[in-house]
Amino acid sequence: MEMPNHRQQFAALVQAQTTVISALPYLIGCAFAYYYYDHFNLGDTILLFIAVVSFHLAVNGHNQYTDYRRHK
């Protein structure tokens, strides 16, 4: 049995596939803001997207680690 590498371990810990759940409401909000205000600041949008995804990964990682510790 082959040991998973660091990238696979990180992806399993933070459940990276669920990032779409955080990204979709963000993208819908960006579309609404552009439609309603007819203005779009790309720099701030990218910065906020990075913050949203980072926060989502941090919360998932913490939850998974806590569940692992309680189960163990």
Describe the structure.
This protein has three helices and no strands. By secondary structure, the protein is an all-alpha fold. The relative contact order is 0.15. The mean pLDDT is 85.
Quick structural overview:
The protein has 72 residues and is mostly helical.
List the helices and strands and how they pair.
Blueprint: H1 6-14, H2 19-37, H3 42-71
Radius of gyration of CA atoms, rounded to a whole number:
16 Å
**What is the number of helices?**
3
Distance between the terminal alpha carbons, to the nearest Å? 22 Å
Order of helices and strands: HHH
Helix fraction, binned, reads over 70%
Beta strands, count: 0
Strand portion? under 5%
Oligomer: single chain
Structural class by helix and strand composition = mainly alpha
Low-pLDDT runs: none
Mean pLDDT: 85
Query: Which word captures the global form?
Result: elongated
- Could you give a short account of the major beta sheet? none
Structure keywords:
mainly alpha, 81% helix, single chain, 72 residues
